[in-house]
Structure formats: C-alpha cells, structure tokens
Amino acid sequence: MPISPARRVAFQVVRRVFEQDAYADRAFGKSAADLDERDRGLAQRIAYGAVQRVRTLDHGIEALGRRPVRKLDLPVLAALRIGAYQLAFLDGVPAHAAVDESVELVRAAGLERAVAFTNAVLRRLAEGLPALIAGLPEGTPEEAAFKHSYPDWVADVWWRDLGADEARALMRAQNEPLPTVVRRSRLRQGEVAGTFDPDVPEALHVDRVDEAALASGLMFPQSVGSQLAGLAVGARPGERILDCCAAPGAKTIQLAEQAAEVVAVEVHPGRSRELEENVRRAGAANVRVVQADALDLPAELSGFDRALVDAPCSGLGVLAQRPDLRWRGRPLPELQAALVAVAAERVNPGGVIVYSVCTINADESEAVVDASGLEVEDLGAEWPQFRHLRRPEFLQTLPHRHNTSGFFVARLRT
Predict the structure, then answer these.
(1) Is the pTM value of this prediction over 0.90?
(2) Is 358 a catalytic residue?
C-alpha cells in the first residue's frame, strides 16, 4: 500500500522530535517543504498532535498493545504514535488508512519483523483507544495532566492560578490548532486577503500564510495575543524605543511603524540575523539591530522613552503552536526579573516599560511585576475584553477564552 506524503512527513517529524530532540516546528518546516497545501495541513496536524498527546497515546499503546513503549523499536513506536493519534483524535480519517499506512511506515523503515506486531496493536487501538481515553478521569491536576497529555507541574500551575474548570478548558484548547493570524504591515503597499480581528487593529485572520506576501513584507505571522503586547507599548512619533528580546521581529516591526527609532537587541547570532532579515523585508529602516546580551548592554544604549521586555519564559501560552514545548519548557522568573530591572535602568525617568510573556503562570507574570517595585498602569481599562481574571490592571489572553495564544502583558512606569 502506498504511503501518503502527509503521513510520511509526520512520521519523520515525530522521529526527529523524540529520537534527536529536534524542535517540532523546525523539523516540520524542513520535512514539509515540498508538500502541497492539503498534505501540509494534514501532516502538521498528525505530527503536532502526536507530539502533544504523546503521554496519553503511550498509555493507550501500552494498555492495548501489552508491551512497554520503552521496549519498542523507535520507528515502530513513532508509527504507533501517529496511528494512535489519528484513531483517537482525528475525525474524518478512515481507520483503515491510519492503520494500514502506519504499518507500511514500519515496513519502509526496514523492520519487516515488526510489521505483524504493529498491525495487531493498531487494530486493537482502532477498537479500544477512543473509549479508553474517554474513560480517563480528570478530577485532579494529575489526572487531568494524564488525560490531556501535559506534565504534572503544568496542570498544578493552572489549577492553582485558574481553578479546575478553567484549567481543564485550557488544557483542551491547547491540544487543538488555533486560527492563523498575521499582522498587516503599514510600511508596505499591497493587499492581503483575510478578515480583520474586531479587537486588535492590523490583526488579519487568514486561511493560510501567503508566502509571496510574507516575502514582500506585506505581513508577518503574529497572533492576536502577541500583537496586543506590541500595541500596549503605546509607541509614539519621535520616541526612541528599546526592544530587549527582539527576535524574530514581529513586535519590533510594530513599534517601528510609530516610533522614530527602535533598538532591537538579540543575543543569539542566528536569531539576530533572522531579525535583521525580517526587519529589512518589512522596510523598517528606523530599526537598529544590536547583537548583545540584554543583561549586559553597551553603555551607550540608554535614554529611551519606552522599552519592551518580551521575555523568555516557559511558553505555556503557545503550546498549541509549539507542540514539544510542554515537554521542555521551564519557568524563568529570575531571568525575567533581571531583564525588567535592566530596562528600568535604560529608560528615561518616568519612562514606560511593557513586560510581556507568552505564558500562563503567575510565577512568571504577576510575581515578576510585583517584585519589580515599578508603578503599574491600568491596561485592563484600555482593553477590558482581555483583562486579567484576578488582576484587572494586567492583560492575559487565554486560548480557551480568546481563541489566541496566551500572553500576559503589564505596562509599568519608572
């Protein structure tokens, strides 16, 4: 039986993630480069879903396959994972296609001796996996983490910060794809097809990312939550703005549309080059890219009117887009606090600092702001639809409520 290009790519991506510790989005971008739009969408759904749901899938494989996953050949395990994901979570995919093509992937990997075993396990999964998963309890953080495939610590944080019902809704939401959103640039002339978001200007909902429009700088992929963080800076004509952790540059370009000058700092050489290319493509001539550690900035980088600290974090708000991040992300409150302190030193007295993180974790959001000692401005009054559930002076987008990535945003004044 022939193997579809989509399943072949999904198999490659899952193997690279779990066997080579690759990042799923980067592995997918390379593997799926030659796929057409339909196959690309299916491949991404299978690959990302299998990585996201791996904890739950492995439980089903062990329970119904009657063999520990640690004892399976790695190509067999990858084929079982993508087959199990399709059988349990992908409506509209024929069970025979999920089973038969997963078996053929094992054969194509040169493991003829494992073909019969793989076939037998997948047929058991087809019969019993959906009911097995549906019957898993979710009354405690640990049970919900197991059922929805998250590390226990993530469930504990969300249970603590949001309560049980909101935490479970958030877990479900971050196992499903979010809408594709781009930001329509003001710096380039041209048309991009899509529907503008009712709450955030320049946020355009599209069916897919138009590669030609991207290459010409007409737009840049950026979620509504991310765009909200850039808007909160409140950049104005004539101002100098420091963007402390700037790559890949979506928010940098936002700021450049209003400010006189944006100094965009990025520590990693490769990401700094990517930032420069994105800024150039967008036509943001008033951006200066500086490759440096934001914690050790050159002395001359001072006297800014505003600063954006879009800090590294655990990424708990972007787990739908970054499927492997739930297994590798960790809170970084000490680094975040240090970055806010550096920004406070580099802006003028009375200057503005916007602190944002793409996470949903009080330890990396409210606690960092509270520890800074800076004056907090009331963002919730400006954007009440995104007001933080417990702290209305902050913003917090939530995937299950706002259908976008999860961003915390605070505006501070020195």
Answers:
(1) yes
(2) yes
